[in-house]
Amino acid sequence: MSNTLSKIEKRTAYALTLPAVLIVFAIVLFPIFSNVWISFKEVQLKDIRIPEPRAKKIVKSIKNEDSKVKIIYKLRNSSLIQDIRDVKFQDKFPNNVQPVDLDERCKFISNKVQCDFGDWSKKYREQLVIFFETKNGEKIEKKLFKLNKPNLKGKADNILLTSDFTLSNFKKVFTNYEFKDLLLTTFYYTFFGTVGAIVFGILSAQMVNQNFRGRSFIRSTLLFPYVAPVVALAFTWELLLDPNSGTLNNLLLNYNIIDKPINLLGQKYVSIFVFGFEFKLRLALTTVIIFEIWRYFPLAFLFILARLQAVPKELYEAADIDGAGPYTKFMNITLPQITAVISILFMIRFIWNFNKFEDIFLLTGGASGTRTLPINVYEQGFSIGDIGMGSAVSMVIVLLLLFFMLIYFKLIGKRANES
Amino acid sequence: MRVKSIITFSIISSFFLFSLISIWKILSTLQGIELKTLNFNFYFLSGIIISFVSIFLSEKLNKLSLVIILSSVFVLIDYFINSSLPIWHYIGTFLILLFFVNKLSKYHKKHFSYNFSAQIIFFDFLTLFGIIFFSFVILFPFYLMLVTSFKTQALLLINPLDFSIDFTQNIKSLFKSYIIVFTEYNFGKYMLNSSIVSIGTVIITLLLGIPAAYAVARLNFFGKHFLSTSILIIYMFPAIVLVIPLYTVFSQLGLRNSVFGLLIIYTATTLPVAIYMLQGYFKSIPKELEEAGIMDGQNWFGIIVKIILPLSLPAIASVALYVFMIAWNEFLFSLMFLDSPSSFTLSRAIQFLNVGAETPRQYLMAGSVVVTLPILFIFVYFEKYLVSGLTSGSVKG
After folding, report:
1. Which of A35, A228, A323 sits opposite B244 (nearest CB)?
2. Statement: residue B391 has pLDDT above 80
3. Is there a contact between A351 and B380 if contact means CB atoms under 8 Å apart?
4. What pTM, to 2 d.p., does this model score?
């Protein structure tokens, strides 16, 4: 009895989960594996269409011969780099007509012309001309010939499915002189974006965690940057920071804080003099990081606020009795209470900032020293059009990501064991 | 101890006054008023004077008269320094001063002799400053987005700092950018596309996600543990590593450039988080209720529809809103998969406007307002549900 029950239970469970599992497998897991495959191939963006034989049909009447018509087929291989094997051609014609001097590769059977063209090499082009005449010498109807479109079939390899592999993509990725810079930029962006978001999250949560009027209003306002669409926010920031007509530069000029506009999103370095030493700050990268912090500190705020509200009030009351000041209370009660949240937040945000694409793409497009790994995937794959290279770079991302996840799950496991 | 506290008090409160006045001045400048300097020295000095006066007069005068006198004197001096400004600017300054002196008058002499009074005062003002600073920094870009959409390119080129809206013009010319965005730039169609994709994603995700989450939460089957742990891992894989294979495969299948293709992708990428969030909630529902259902001869469909669904409406609402938000805001896939304007979503359309020929900025900003307002409206209206969605689904972002 219980055996059949558990069988039914199993069957139900599979029926319930199958649709979701299938669609996730097709759209998320399958691409991750095919990324590995593509990264070992030399594929260009323009090659991904499967080659196919094509024909353009032109019907022409012939002067002084009412009963004849000339048909031209412009035949070609759609691919510039791949052959097509075993091309078959077929076209249907009206009743009561017959071809004159048909090409020897073709046959005329029951109103149809069938041809066997054999193999077409890449870039193959040919003009096939067929004359038709009426069987009884009547006037020929040109219109009737235009009704049908020729049907072509051929076998071609899908370039993604061939079995020639190469290591050249990875070689290019790792030997590129920019690769070190790429990793470094990604690391700066990820690390400072994460740390900044958490620091501002702590500050804002600490402020909102006190009683004042308009507190719930502030709480929802602080979440605006996180819920609003990134496209709208990025373009607003572009207007805000524009060197010529941007509001920020014009305000600073107006109050005589700066002499000439600063191109915050378009300038790679800015020199800062501290005690006579020159420091080079990566300006555009810093701006992008500030945008990142602005957009994601609300999440840290939300988490830390939730944790702060769960801190028992008795702890603070006890500290008051012991005569502790606000600073001591913050360092010795508040901070230890939120370290768990902070460490998990740090890992989550670190992983997500590491993968962030939209923000930089919309603000700078990866120019002036803001090219991170995800931006490079897009550039290699779609701007340059080298799909194989793009996949190789995204494989680097996946490997680093797996490494970060390993740490993250170890951390979560450790926390679970502690509590 | 007392001297240190009083000095801390006057310095930090002066900084606070200066930042309040500066924000007000920036806002006034953006209304087209000629203000050429923030005048740090003057406001800092007057902040210090006001704080001292308020400490020493607080016991002699009653609070209300102290507040009004100090504010009026300050605004009069301010008037003599920058005269010929419109009257509303001074009224604003006066209100700020009322607020400021009112805060100051809470500190009596005795406050300065407590333990840690310097620290307490410092933290009090830091909190005040922080609240104002954060609200300003967060809201300023949104403010800019909104007011730019009511200006014209020509006016902004003449004076890029004048964002004052002319309310005397008729409604049609006031909302001209919005009318043009909807008529000439076809935003009605894009809005429809965005709504179809987002609502469609929500519906399909829930239809597939609820049964799967129920199975993971309640039923025993081989591979259950594997499934529930892999959900989270799958969820953490970013769109950027999926985009190349999906692009090639969808191109070969002819699914690119269709709203339908986008719908499939959004559903697949949001399903893991939906299952993750829902199964957590389903586990919290007492098992006895379902056992009663089984006794009544319900099958799993009956159990889900009649018992689980009514009990977990709040969780479903937060999942639905969260998924809607992700789909509405999504950008990368709509950039890669939509080429022809007839299938654009709002995000893609705005990006297209920006990349394309010189689109006047007020239209760009009107488009941005059109894409931002619905999501902000939903957020404010359903804040409770969306916040719980954000918290439990926040591994992604």
Report:
1. A35
2. no
3. no
4. 0.86
